[in-house]
Amino acid sequence: MKISRSIASRHYPRIVFRNGERMLWNPLKRQALRFRPEERIRLQVLDYLILESSIPSARIAVESPVPSRFSRGRTDLLCYDSQFQPLLLIECKADTVRLGPRAATQSAVYNRFVKAPCLMLTNGLEDAFFHVANQLEAIDKSDYPAEFVPDDPDWHSADPDYWMERGFLPPGLPATAATALAHRLALLFHLSQETRSWLSIPFPGRQMPLTHHHLLLSAAGHPDTLIAVTFCAVTPETAVFSAVANRKKRNIAYFCCSLGKDGTFRDPQLFPEKNDDIPESGSGMMDDSLAPALPSTLPSGDSNLMDLNDFWLSLDDDPVSRDMDPITVQTGLTTERAVRSARRLARILERLLLET
After folding, report:
1. Does residue 322 contact residue 183 with C-beta atoms inside 8 Å?
2. In the CATH scheme, what is the code of domain 3-148?
């Protein structure tokens, strides 16, 4: 089985608020759904299909029943060709599930009745793709169906609506601030080439975990430490910027501030973790660490805080981040600037979290 990095890994499922609760949104069914890992991956792939592939939404089916006396299963996603014949059967697994023979067998059993010429397995991090002939034949990305692979991918999106629909920004931001924030998020979350992961972090002072997509930045001066960074709309009106330092599966420091309507950081709070008896996270990342009770107040003149604000505002000085288009944004110069920006952010947060 040939496994490659998922082509949908750059995408994020859409999020809506229902009675104050963050929920997943299925744009085809127009339905709000509770968070489940497999559902999130399915909507992540669906986002790729809608935004990047040349397969129209009308030719994409979600959870089609498999007409079999041997199985009561449903296909996760089924794409049809222009003659409305099955083209591609997609089986989605949670990101904690390893792609292997068992998942491939399930997909193949479904396809005995669907009869699509191509199969795809994905956990949102990796893909396995097959042609169906007399037997399953693993294929490389160069042999994926032409309709599935865009000629000119437009995955960066500097459109504020993109980030609002996916829970990074609240919908109530003024247009000017929202546009500036969208440019910054496009640089950091799409062009920087940094690893991203969906994490649920029990954050100090919050009743609910901060569950969202995070950038994972390496702390240059502390090789055993990762810094997870996110922007997250916690209500339809408010958003937070947060960063968490994790060393050897233990959260050791937290930083959080609100995102003002002008797009700047407000009310910063730093939570250094002093407890040496924190249990290790079962997932190997930040999900289960205990959080400290009291924050450390940062003065407005704190040098690291000033550096963070200066960095955040200086992203607008990048001329390429203004009025980005799919051609300009793909240039090496823009990617290089995004990489440098992510590294600079990591250095600032490293000082803030680990040296303050």
Report:
1. yes
2. 3.90.1570.30
